[in-house]
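Tutorial handout. Part one gives the primary structure; part two gives the three-dimensional structure as tokens.
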Amino acid sequence: MSEIGERLAQVRARIAAAARRAGRDPASITLVAVSKTVPPDRIKEGVAAGIAVLGENRVQEAREKIEALGRLAQWHLVGHLQTNKAKLAVQLFDLIHSLDSLKLAHELDKHARALGKRVPCLVEVNQGSELTKSGLAEADLVPLLREAAPLPGLEILGLMSIPPFLENPQDVRPHFRRLRELRDAAVAAGIPGLRMDHLSMGMSHDFEVAIEEGATMVRIGTAIFGPRPQP
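Part two.
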């Protein structure tokens, strides 16, 4: 087994154990292997080992990789999306995790309709009010959902967050629990056309806690592909 294959197997075992602790089916959790800065040959090695979903942070980097590798797996956008890249994002990605404004929602809707498709999205919430991170404030979530959910080119499927990094993963638990509560509140609002199937939360450092709190998608890069090169 390759090095990436061994790392992937370890991550899958940890996902399964966390799911069992929470009384959940491990198959209900999607592993998004974050491949930003990972060269195409290592991505191919990962897909050969069983990776089915790849996550990229930047539209242009993803475009180059998709052109080189093709649709060998699903491609998700997990990084911030600028409105001027919305057209390309609609063409490239199977799921966009980072819808964070009405302006972006309308851009995505416009380009999706032009292609005769609906683009699946998650709405990103900035839980730590961190100026360096994108995402909606909690108070803006339901108003955005009310306006964006009816757009014919969008299919809103849940929420995403990148909580503050804390050394002890247990200290992140309240943020994960809060995102689940926000999801439940959105469901309770009874917004037509809205689906809240997914919570994309948890990364290499804290994904087990995220699963215990209800994550349906975990975004894991370093634990699979190894440390990224420092710039």
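Part three, for discussion. The chain has a mean pLDDT of 95. The CA atoms of residues 67 and 110 lie 24 Å apart.
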